[in-house]
Design brief:
heterodimer, A: alpha+beta, 2 domains, four-stranded antiparallel sheet, 13 helices, 10 strands, B: 197 residues, seven-stranded mixed sheet, 7 strands, 21% strand, elongated
Amino acid sequence: MDPGRDAGDMLSTFEVTRSAIARPTAAARMWALVATMVLVAGGAYSHEVPVEQIVRIDMAIQGDRLIVRMQVPATALIDARLPRLSDGTIDAAAMVTVLPIVMADVVRNLDVQQDGTPLRSADATSRVGADRKSIDIDATYQIDGTAGLSARLNAFRGEPLQPVRTAVRYMPGTGAAQTISVAGPPARVTFDPAVLDAVQEFVARALTAVLAFGDHLLMLVCVLVPERTMRDSARVIATLIAAQAAGMIVSALAAGLLAPALPVTAMIASSVIVVAAVQNIVRARGGFVAASTALFGVLNGLAVGHLFATDAQFAGAHRVAAFAVFLVVFALAELWLGAIAAATRMWLAGRGAADRIVIPVASALIAHSAVHHVIDLGHVIAQSGSFAAEHAVVSLTLGWAIVMVLVAAREALRAGHRQDQSARIVSSAGR
Amino acid sequence: MPGQTVHSGESAKSAGRERLGVIVIAVGIVSVIAVYLGLNATKARDSGKDLLPYQTLAGTLPEADRQAFRAIREGLLIAEGERARRGAWPEQAPLGPGHQWSRLDQGAIVNYFGVPGDPSAPAWLLEIQEPEPGMAPDPAPEDDEHHRLPDGTMLHTYVWMHRYGAQVPLGFVRQPQNSGWIEVFSTPPNPVYYNRR
């Protein structure tokens, strides 16, 4: 043992201790900082994000033949158990026997048909892609005209976090190329459908969209909960439908630009329902109800328009006709639902329904459902990962609080102004 | 005091108007429900939206697989007839061409396993589950999955397919859904009576 060294150690320990005692605030600050960092790190987490595996298919009509070129990533062929090298790429040498089997399976599952009759490809060929991560398959089909061609798309399977999407570029003999993208379970898609088929398809899609229980029905019921005259009810329903139509048109024209903002607009639309429910309870003036209805209509219209934009690929070359039909059917069906709801409400009013109980209770139930939608959409937005997105619900709540405070301030100022005027009138009358 | 009846033309008119209003509303509501049910019924026939990830509808398969599915369903009826006559499942059942069929039993479950001649074609599995001894009678109505033998025995039948059939090892499959098999239905199963183990 070295007494000199021990003394030195003791001295330095003493100095550290003394300095810690002399600066308790600094030490506390340091520990607080460390503790905060640990706590923040403890709250941080990561989540795996699904990465889509894209199968690309080019289909082109050349005379009486349909030429199909497919590029299938190996990750979309997990059932085939392709031989791999140690670096994860396809073992081309071992593929000699496997490749024809995979090609036959892919072509069989693509199941190209014309007017419901399966077409056979006599000269399909395949090879391992240049990147050795995919397989290229070419197939040619003899066709009779260009009408009624269909294929079964996205018949592939990836790992759970690698879902497969099939993107098809279909080039008809004449006219512009069409792009079709299918995710999820395999689906048969008809290329370049006739206008009547497209119209029929979009009538059904519009009716399904209206009758699906969504925010638009919640809002429709919400604005018709208070007793209104026939004229007022018609005005509110017309405002909602007109605003939705405007939103749908904007969304259809700028689908790509608006797509990233849709979760946010949907969340704001749901929050407008909560505000409308509160308006019912406090018996807000018609102008405020119209404003919230119009705001909701535009935001909801953007979402419905996006729904159309996603499905528009199935209309082939008849997108404009499909959109017109979708818009008109959606509006008429909503008008129909609104008329039934308004007539039922007026009948209930005639039966002497206890509005003091019915309106707050119904509005509270609607607000409850809408709040759940807001929170669910908040979670969706939070998954985008940014700090602002994770606090979307808080930002939205603060936004509405600011709007309400501003409206209240304006009303208070107007009330004060009216009181001043009354006082002046009283004092001038007294004189 | 004698009762007095007051007739008022105004109230009779208002009652008539209300009746008409109620009828209009009722027709409106019924028509909405009818359209909703109609849309769902049309979609449900060929839509797999209510199916589990390992299930699919035969109507969405390629034509060759649809034919194989139909052949299995038809062959099952013949096999059931033999089971009813002889009290045992036939060793070879006519479950469709293009496959080498093997019967594999385990307890009350019988598997007919079809290995395809073409290695790119799918393997097929017909799974028949007889009631365990002492089990209460199954009240399910007869459908694709529930077949009743003449002696009252209720069978559960399931049809499965597996892509790249030549790669699938031949053997009794206890839980097909856990090993890449896809269950095939002609129509979506009745959720009340569908009872996968």
